[in-house]
Amino acid sequence: MQNINGKTKLYGLIANPVEHTKSPLIHNGISDLLGINSVYLPFLVKDSLEEAINGAKALNIQGLNVTIPYKQDVIKYLDEIDQEAKEIGAVNTIIIKNDKLIGYNTDARGLARDCKRQGVSFDNKNVCILGAGGAANAVAILCAKSNVNKLYIVNRTMSKAETLRDMIRMYYKSLDITCLSYDDIYKIDDIDICVQTTSLGMSPYIDRSPIDNNEFFEKLEVVVDIVYNPRQTKFLKDAAKHGVMIINGLGMLYYQAVEAYEIWNDIVISDQDIEIGYLALQDNVYSCN
Ligand code: NAP
Predict the structure, then answer these.
(1) Residue 185 binned pLDDT confidence (cut-offs 50, 70, 90)
(2) Backbone angles phi, psi at 151, to 5 degrees
(3) Which among 103, 144, 146, 168 is least surrounded, fewest beta carbons within 10 Å?
(4) Angstrom distance (rounded) from CA 133 to CA 163
(5) Distance 59 CA to ligand 1 centre (A)
(6) pLDDT tens per residue, range 43-88
(7) Which residues have any ligand 1 atom within 6 Å of their CB?
(8) How much distance in Å is there from the Cα of 130 to the middle of ligand 1?
(9) What is the CA(201)–ligand 1 centre distance, in A?
């Protein structure tokens, strides 16, 4: 990390818990690479979100990332919210500028950039999202913006899948969306891309996948698991056995951070520097695996 002085700009993440975050590694790594005089710190916010936000403003913090459990609650403390964050219904990035707080959500664009890098397009595809939680909202908005042909939302709790469908339809009225139970997805045979957004597959559920009938993978082209640790979840391993292209969640994590960095600094980071940062993150996360 470079020398900290009176001109160092401060950024951070507010979350609870915060100790396992990889965001400081990504952001401070990019600052080092680009020679930008800024520092990024994790902030544990136990309960008083409003005070944390006011404190950030008072301390001239330039920008914040926001994650669990504050992505929705933080909206009421912001002066403006970007259209995509509004559609997703959550904010993961705040820029503090001229005494104003403006909220963005970079999760969908993060996943879009990683898929593009890997040569995967959602355009005109039939996409299935497993899960209907916060991350699924961002993936569903990406699907809506990417001109998918059909969208299937599969969730254990059907009412949450229906709520997500209704939220998406508020903005994308003509999108063909079907909500399904896990039993029903085995009856569907026109899915091209499946995005796994549940927490199954990560610790302590590393032996679990939401898909228990592997015939499901036979007709798919691509599966994405937004979980990044372990590197290959059970879901990805099962898909790979059927010759399906697999993408894990590390790229989404990385590119949502790159997008935030670009918003805060009003820059476009070169592909070469982006690749260097990604390889450094990958080494750090998987060096023990
Ligand atoms: P969330 O809002 O809590 O949603 C969790 C989802 O998982 C819900 O749809 C829930 O279904 C489902 N689920 C949980 N346990 C299940 C089980 N036993 N069987 C079937 N479904 C189950 O969480 P989130 O914020 O969306 O995050 C989900 C995952 O995505 C986490 O692992 C998170 O780390 C990861 N993530 C990764 C990135 C990235 O950048 N790579 C970004 C965001 C999130 P019900 O509705 O039925 O409870």
Answers:
(1) very high
(2) -120, 125
(3) 146
(4) 10
(5) 34
(6) 999 989 999 999 999 999 999 999 999 999 999 999 999 999 999 9
(7) 107, 131-136, 155-157, 160, 197-200, 202, 210, 226-228, 249, 252-253, 256
(8) 9
(9) 10
Alpha-carbon distance of 52 to 72, in angstroms, equals 15
* DSSP code of residue 288: T
Q: Are 192 and 169 in contact (CB under 8 A)?
A: no
For residue 67 the two structure tokens come to: 């994650």
Q: Rounded to whole angstroms, what are the CA distances from 44 to 14, 50, 138? A: 6, 13, 24
Q: What is the C-alpha separation between 74 and 91, in angstroms, rounded?
A: 7
Q: What percent of the chain has pLDDT over 90?
A: 97
Write the CA distances from 280 to 171, 228, 285, integer angstroms: 38, 15, 9
Please state the pTM of the whole predicted model. 0.96
Give the CA count within 13 Å in the CB-facing half-sphere of 50: 2
- Whose alpha carbon is nearest atom 7 of ligand 1? 198
Residue in this structure with the two tokens 């979350």, named with its chain if needed: 15
- Told to judge if 71 belongs to the known catalytic residues of this protein, a careful annotator would answer yes
